[in-house]
Amino acid sequence: MKKLEAAMNPTRLSRAPLAIASVLLIGLASVDAQAFARGDEPVALEQARTEILEERLLDVGIQLFDPGLPEDEYERYKLEDEGIYTDVRKAEARYFPMQLKSALQTSGFWGAVRLVPASHVVDLRVGGRIRKSNGKHLELDIIAVDVQGKEWIEKTYKAEADPLAYVDGEGRPEPFQSLYNRIANDLHDASRKMDTEDVQRVRRIAELRFANYLAPSAFGDYLSEKKSKFK
Predict the structure, then answer these.
(1) Is residue 135 within 8 Å of 161, Cβ to Cβ?
(2) I need a labelling partner for 36 at 20 to 30 A (CA). Which of 10, 65, 175, 225 fits?
(3) What is the distance in angstroms between the CA of the first residue and the CA of the last residue of the chain?
(4) What is the DSSP string of 205-220?
(5) Which of 138, 164, 179 shows the shortest CA–CA distance to 36?
(6) Cα 14 to Cα 37: distance, rounded to the nearest angstrom
(7) Would you call 90 helix, strand, or coil by DSSP?
(8) What is the pTM of this model?
(9) Which helix (H) or strand (E) holds 158?
C-alpha cells in the first residue's frame, strides 16, 4: 500500500476514450456465464432515506485511477501475454472512477461528486490504483483523504464479477457494482463519525485552501500546515 499515495497525484493517462472499457465489457458479454464461478454475494448500496441538511454534505472529488502499469514499455508489452492491454487498462482507469462517482451520487449522502484533477481543492478526495482487472476479478487500492489531510480509507477492495453481467440480454448489471457499493458504504461509515462541527471545519478549510491558492498573500495566515495536515 506504500504506492497508494501516488494515486492522489496526477497520472499520465492516454486519451483513449471511455468506449474502450465499454468495448471490453461488450466483448466479454458473449462469454458463457458458466465459464465464471459464482460471483460474490451482492452488496447493497446504503442510501439516504430522508433529505440531509446542506450543512452536513461534503463534496467529493475522485481522481482518475492509476492504471497500475509498469513504466517500462517492454514490461508493458510483455503483459499482453497475460491479456493485459495498455489502452484497455488506461481506459479502465477512467471508467472505474465514473462508476464509483455514480454510486456515491445515488447514495444521496454527499454534496457534489466530481471527477477532478490532483490540483483541485475539495472536501474529500478519493484516489485509486488498479491492482488486477481481467473481466472476472477486480482489485483496487483505494485511498480517501479529506482536505485537512486526515485519512478516511486506505484499503484494497476485491470482487468477482456478477456472472449475469456477461449473459446476453437487456438489463445486465454492472459486473462489479458490489465493489463500488462497498467503497461508497465505507465512505459513508467514515462520515457518520463526524458531527456537524467536524463537517463545518472541513468545509471551512476547503474554502480557505482555495482562497489561499488564489491569493496566498491575503489568506495565507488563516491556515497552518504541518506534515500535510491543515488547521
Answers:
(1) yes
(2) 65
(3) 27
(4) HHHHHHHHHH-HHHHG
(5) 164
(6) 33
(7) helix
(8) 0.78
(9) strand 151-160
Instruction: Report whether 83 contacts 21 (CB < 8 A).
Output: no
Distance, CA of 136 to CA of 132 (rounded, Å): 10
Per-residue pLDDT for 230 more than 50? yes
Contacts of 214 (CB under 8 A, 6+ apart): none
> Cell numbers at residue 104, please?
456515491
CA distance readout (Å), 101 to 17, 32, 108, 123, 150:
18, 30, 11, 15, 21
- pLDDT at 117 exceeding the cut of 70: yes
Which three three-digit cell numbers place residue 117?
484533477
DSSP helix/strand/coil, 7: helix
Answer for the pair 143, 4: CB distance below 8 angstroms, yes or no.
Answer: yes
- Band (pLDDT 50/70/90 cuts) for residue 40 is low
- Count of positions (residues) in the chain: 231
